[in-house]
Amino acid sequence: MTIPPTRQRVLLGVAAGGLTALLAACGGGGNGSSAGGSTTSPPPKSTTSGTQVTAKLTDFHIALSTGKFQPGQYTFTAKNQGQHEHALEIEGPGGENRSKTLDPGQSTTLTVTLKSGSYKVYCPVDGHKDLGMRTTITVGGAPASSGNDTSQNNGY
Ligand SMILES: [Cu+2]
C-alpha cells in the first residue's frame, strides 16, 4: 500500500505549520537581546589619555620617540635604561612637570598638556642636564609649506 492522499496533505500541513511556528518563535524570542544588533563591544580601553611618547633615558642622553608635537595632552613614558638614576622634566609655556626619579630599569609615566611654544626636556638629576640629558621640543610648529604671513597678520 502507498500513502493515501489524505496523509500527504497532513504532512504538508505539518511542514507548513512547523515553519510558521519556527518563524514565530524566532520573531518573538529575538526581541530581547538581538533586535537591532546594537550590542557592540566597548572601545579599546586605554589606561592613559593623550598621545603616547616614549622617552628613553640613558647615560647621558634623552631620546624621544617623536619630534613632532601639537598642542594637546601627552603621556610621556620615561624609561631609565642607563646605569644611574634619572628622571624626566618637561618645562615650558604650560608649566613644569617632573617625573619621579627612576632607578636603573624603572619606568614611569608623566602626563602633560602641551601648549604652543618651546619646551625644555631634560633630566633634573644632578648635573645630568649638562652631561647631555637635555633636548628641546617645539609644540605646534608651523609646517614648512605654509608661510608665516597669515599667522603674523592675525590680530595686528
Ligand atoms: Cu639623568
Automatic annotation (TrEMBL):
Region annotated Disordered, chain positions: 30-51, 80-106
Signal peptide: 1-24
Annotated InterPro entries: Cupredoxin (IPR008972), EfeO_Cupredoxin (IPR028096), TAT_signal (IPR006311)
Keyword Signal attributed: yes
Domain EfeO-type cupredoxin-like stretches: 51-127
UniProt keyword terms in alphabetical order: Signal
Ranges annotated as biased composition (Low complexity): 36-51
Pfam families referenced in this protein's UniProt entry, alphabetically: Cupredoxin_1
Protein name per Swiss-Prot or TrEMBL: EfeO-type cupredoxin-like domain-containing protein
Organism: Streptomyces viridochromogenes (strain DSM 40736 / JCM 4977 / BCRC 1201 / Tue 494)
